[in-house]
Amino acid sequence: MPQIAPTLKLNNGQDMPTIGLGTWRSYESDAERSVKDAIDIGYRHIDTAFVYENEHEVGSAINAKLAEGVIKREDIFVVTKLAGVHHNPDIVEHACRTSLKNLNLSYIDQYLIHFPVGQEYVSDDNLSGPVSNVDYVDTWQAMEKLVDLGLVRGIGLSNFNSDQIQRVLDIARIKPVVNQVECHPGFNQKKLIEFCKRNNIVVTAYCPLARPKPAQQWPPFLYDGTAQKLAEKYGKTSAQICLRYLIQIGTIPIPKSVSKNRIAENFDVFDFELKEEDMIIMDKYHNGRRTIPFSGLSQHKYFPFNTEF
Predict the structure, then answer these.
(1) Which residues contact 230 (CB under 8 A, 6 or more apart)?
(2) Is residue 52 among the annotated active site residues?
(3) pLDDT at residue number 293
(4) How far apart are CA 250 and CA 154, in angstroms?
C-alpha cells in the first residue's frame, strides 16, 4: 500500500488531503498519465478546472483507477472550478453538471468559484467572453444550491482577497471551505492565511514552486545557496523544503507536474518538519510579488485585486 497524505478537517466536516496534484496546463495524455501516476504514488487529492480543458482526461484516469480497485470513490478528493463564463446564477447548475459529465463522476468533492469576476456567457466552448457585471455573491448563492442537490460536497473560492471573502461570508448560508490562491515562499500570503484561519477557511496553495525556470536559476528559494544548504541539512530537495514550508504555514499545496519522478518527489514531504529557525529563513524569501499578476482585471468593480490581502 502506498503512503497516504494526512488530511485536514474542513468546516463542513470533509477530510481534505494536505497535498494534491495540480493539473493546470496538463493536456490530453499528459493529464491522464500524471493523474494515474499520482494515484499510484499515494495522492488522493486531484485539482482541475473547467478552464483547464482537461476534466475528461482527469476523470478518465480516476475512473481507470476505480475500475482497477486501486481506490474507491470515497478515497479520492476531486476539486474542480466554476469558469468565469458560468457566473450567471442561471448557468451555475448547468456548469456543474457539465463538469460532472466531463469527469464521469456522480458528485464533486469541492467546487470553487475560479475568480471573483465573471465573463459574458456565449457558449461552453467560448472561454474568452467580455467581462460581465454579475456579482459573485449572487453566484455564491447558486453554488449553495449545488450542495442542496447533492452534486457537490463542499464549495469554496479561488483568487479571492479578504474583502471579497468577507462579502461572501456576509451573505453565505453555507460557508466557503477553502480559498485557493497563488502561494509560495516568494509570495507567502501570511496575512490572507491568518484572515482565512480566523474564519475557518483553509488556503490551498497553487503555483507552490512559483513556476520554476531552471535555466535562469529562478526562483531563489529553489536555487540559491541558502536553499541548497537547507536541502542538504534535511536530506531533501529544495522543492520538498518549499512544500514542507507551505504545509507548516497552514496551506495545502497542489504542485503540478507530469513527470512521475517529480510527482513522487513532491509527495515525499511528510517524514520531516522544518525547525523554527529554518521557517524564519524561508519567510525571508517573501517579496510580495506574484507570478500571475491578473493585471487586466485589477480595476474591475468586483475584482479590486490588491497584492496580497
Answers:
(1) 238, 241, 278, 281, 282
(2) yes
(3) 79
(4) 19
* Euclidean distance between CA atoms 132 and 297, whole angstroms: 11
Residue whose entry in the numeric block shows the C-alpha cell 497552514: 250
Range list of β-strands (E), 43-151: 45-47, 77-82, 108-113
C-beta of residue 210 within 8 angstroms of C-beta of residue 186: yes
C-alpha cell at 143: 453554488
Residue 198 C-beta-side C-alpha neighbours within 13 Å: 9
- State mean pLDDT over 182-188: 97
With beta carbons less than 8 A apart as the criterion, state whether 154 and 14 touch.
yes
**Beta-ladder partners of 119:** 131
Q: Residue 136 and residue 165: Cα distance in Å, rounded?
A: 10
Contact between 6 and 19 under an 8 Å Cβ cutoff? The reply is: no
pLDDT band, residue 271 (cuts 50/70/90): very high
Q: Which residues pair with 250 in a beta bridge?
A: none
* Closest residue by Cα to residue 248 from 276, 229, 268, 225: 276
> Which residue among 27, 43, 52, 121 is the active-site one?
52
User: Cell match 517573501: residue?
Assistant: 286
Q: What angle do the packed helices 28-41 and 260-267 form, to 10 degrees?
A: 40
Encode pLDDT of 76-118 as tens digits.
999 999 999 999 999 999 999 999 999 999 999 999 999 999 9
